[in-house]
Amino acid sequence: MVVGDLAQEVDVLVIGSGPGGYVAAIRAAQLGRSVAIVDKDTVGGVCLNRGCIPSKAIISASERYMGIKEAGEMGIEVSGDVNVNMPKLIEWKNGVVKKLTGGVNSLLKGNGVEIISGEAYFSGPNSLRVVSEDASQTYKFNDVIIATGSRPAELKILPFDGKRILSSTEALNLQEVPKRFIVVGGGYIGLELGTAYAKLGAEVTILEGTKSLLPGTDEALTKMVTRKLKKLGVTVITEAMVQGGENTGDEVVVRATVNGEEKTFSADYCLVAVGRKPNTDELGLEFAGVETDERGFIKIDKQCRTNVEHIYAIGDCAGGALLAHKASYEAKIAAEVMCGMNSVIDYQAMPFVIFSDPEIAYTGLTEAQAKEEGYDPVVSRFAFAANGRALSMNHADGFVQIVADKETKQVLGVQIVGPEASTLIGEAVFAVEMGANAEDIAMTIHAHPTLPETIMEAAEGVLGHAIHMVNKK
């Protein structure tokens, strides 16, 4: 190993090049700082390489495949077999990832950000060492932003082997569609990938330890998803406590206790998706004096500062909702604060999106949360079954629900389950963020026939004069 004799001086150092890190680096560079970013892997982090983007590519492919199989309902008859070439699908998915990571690389260079390859370890509050395969170099910095993200949490009783017992990383690179596929964990990761593989032809079983899928999500939303899973032939077993399992060579066997009875489940592969843990345990944070909580998440204030004034943390490693767009949002806050601006975190309208079938998206307060905060809420729900565009797409399951203050009609929250909920939530986030009331939405002309009309109709329902549904008395 070649060791650098002298420490190199950098102004701002960003650790991690995911949707938090690369955004922070670019924003700091825009504000006039000299910035370097370090990552041991390809730029783009988990989101672009092993998470958001590759999973949505596979989900999109599975939806296209299902669309072809169901085209007969629209009078489109497909003769012969429709097959899934999994190696080609994965090759296509990797091409999508490569385009995006290449774009991020170009953006960093275009903004004058130095890219350093290697693994970072703090050696003090103003220094760290970057170790690569053939070198080790110490860097001294004025400010640093930690954006190291998170990784799949592992079960000691069912550890990953990368062959048949998989994390989400391996599940995104299977070279075949499993005949049988077990998913341990009914959260959004397990549900999204389980649904995708079910559409591609796998016999899927989801084992969830709590009473329902998507713990913490409004039950009215998850009911629609559970109903569709049943149509897809997915077996969902709740209150299933996994006791262990092993790779037998030809298959994986999982043992779980269900209603007090131990049952055995076997499949070609098992995806373990029981949450994520922060990548903070091998950073040497103790040498920098940075405090973490009992789970390893870095403690930050409303300006993304840690307990060490010139050290910031953003995204998954700083806890809260583990969302790529949250990391990007915090990245801008941290960079601006570091450059002397008085920016502050405000999560009033954070969008949450689950790429289930149908999709789920929500922001702001639920009816129960609104009551807890002292509001007298009024709730209006408009069904996609009454929307012309949804019906013409043959995707009319679900609804848009608006929660508003009864007196002022201010929009407090929006919940959507249905086609393209991930896209529709943008209008809802804007409404909650700007403090809009239901009339602001209702009086905005929405193009016809489109899915966003459902938001307008739900807003009219709050006001008591919806046209395409019966108003509550």
TrEMBL record:
Domain FAD/NAD(P)-binding: 11-331
Superkingdom assignment: Bacteria
Pfam family, one: Pyr_redox_dim
Residue ranges annotated for the Pyridine nucleotide-disulphide oxidoreductase dimerisation domain, each copy included: 350-459
Keywords recorded for this protein, A-Z: Disulfide bond, FAD, Flavoprotein, NAD, Oxidoreductase, Redox-active center
SUPFAM superfamilies tied to this protein: FAD/NAD(P)-binding domain, FAD/NAD-linked reductases, dimerisation (C-terminal) domain
Cofactor: record remark: Binds 1 FAD per subunit.
Residue stretches in coiled coil: none
Record's catalysed reaction(s): N(6)-[(R)-dihydrolipoyl]-L-lysyl-[protein] + NAD(+) = N(6)-[(R)-lipoyl]-L-lysyl-[protein] + NADH + H(+)
Cofactor: FAD
EC number: 1.8.1.4
Enzyme class: oxidoreductase
Matching InterPro entries: Class-I_Pyr_Nuc-Dis_Oxidored (IPR050151), FAD/NAD-bd_sf (IPR036188), FAD/NAD-binding_dom (IPR023753), FAD/NAD-linked_Rdtase_dimer_sf (IPR016156), Lipoamide_DH (IPR006258), Pyr_nuc-diS_OxRdtase (IPR001100), Pyr_nucl-diS_OxRdtase_dimer (IPR004099), Pyr_OxRdtase_I_AS (IPR012999)
Miscellaneous note of the record: The active site is a redox-active disulfide bond.
NCBIfam families cross-referenced by the UniProt entry: lipoamide_DH
Recorded family membership: Belongs to the class-I pyridine nucleotide-disulfide oxidoreductase family.
Protein name (record): Dihydrolipoyl dehydrogenase
Species the sequence originates in: Laceyella sediminis
